């Protein structure tokens, strides 16, 4: 009788531990998916595909730039989910038959469309996601200057040092977000 009780007790404990582990694991995944959502998924999917980008990369930038707040406006005047400046928006529209007013950057579809166009151009220009992200944050002219500075770039093609702490932190944040999005969803 004692052996049976003890066996049941051990069996119950093992069952409770396994069940607890499963619940914690599921709860943890739900928590992380809440922190790293797939907002605006239809738009992101479409624009990522049209611009040859990975969805996880686009989500990583949106998470870092605005944390999915479509009304976000930075101290530098960057607007919307992907935090495009009016000047960048205007530049991206050069050569288009019709240009959109700056206010349209508050429309998630427009913001993601032009944010993806910008990311694609930067990736095409630099052929390096870290350089593209640095240019997205600090500007193309600045990154080109860094590449020409032998104290920052030994080969003129990549950066040995990112001289702006804000840009270095931003690049790390986007890389971390990208890794998390890939792990959670892709």
Can you summarize this structure?
The protein is 66% helix and 0% strand. It contains eight helices and no strands. The chain starts with a helix and ends with a helix.
Q: What is the CATH-assigned architecture of the largest domain?
A: Orthogonal Bundle
Number of helices: 8
Strand content: under 5%
Reported for the largest beta sheet, the result is: none
Portion of residues within helices: 55-70%
Q: Structural class, judged by helices and strands?
A: mainly alpha
Q: Briefly, what CATH class of the largest domain?
A: Mainly Alpha
List the topology elements.
Elements: H1 2-35, H2 41-50, H3 55-66, H4 86-92, H5 108-126, H6 129-138, H7 140-148, H8 165-185
Helix pairs in contact: 2-5, 3-8, 5-6, 6-7, 6-8
Question: What does it look like?
Answer:
InterPro entries: Lysozyme-like_dom_sf, Transglycosylase_SLT_dom_1. It comes from Candidatus Gallacutalibacter pullicola. This is Lytic transglycosylase domain-containing protein. The chain has 186 residues and is mainly α. It folds into 2 domains: 35 residues; 148 residues, Lysozyme (Orthogonal Bundle). The chain has 8 helices and no strands. The termini are far apart. The relative contact order is 0.11. The model has no long low-confidence stretch (mean pLDDT 92).
């Amino acid at each position: 009788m004692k052996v049976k009780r003890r066996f049941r007790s051990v069996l119950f404990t093992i069952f409770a531990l396994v069940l607890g582990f499963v619940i914690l694991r599921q709860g943890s995944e739900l928590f992380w998916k809440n922190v790293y959502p797939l907002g605006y998924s239809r738009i992101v999917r479409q624009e990522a595909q049209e611009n040859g980008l990975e969805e996880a990369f686009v989500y990583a930038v949106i998470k870092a730039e605005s944390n999915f707040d479509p009304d976000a406006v930075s101290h530098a005047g960057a607007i919307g989910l992907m935090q495009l400046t009016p000047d960048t928006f205007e530049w991206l529209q050069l050569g288009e038959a019709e240009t959109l007013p700056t206010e349209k950057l508050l429309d998630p579809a427009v913001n993601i469309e032009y944010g993806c166009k910008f990311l694609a151009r930067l990736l095409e220009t630099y052929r390096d996601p870290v350089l593209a992200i640095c240019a997205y944050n600090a500007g193309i002219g600045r990154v080109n200057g860094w590449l020409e500075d032998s104290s920052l770039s030994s080969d003129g093609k990549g950066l040995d040092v990112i001289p702006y702490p804000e840009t270095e932190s931003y690049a790390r944040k986007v890389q971390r977000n990208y890794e998390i999005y890939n792990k959670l969803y892709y």
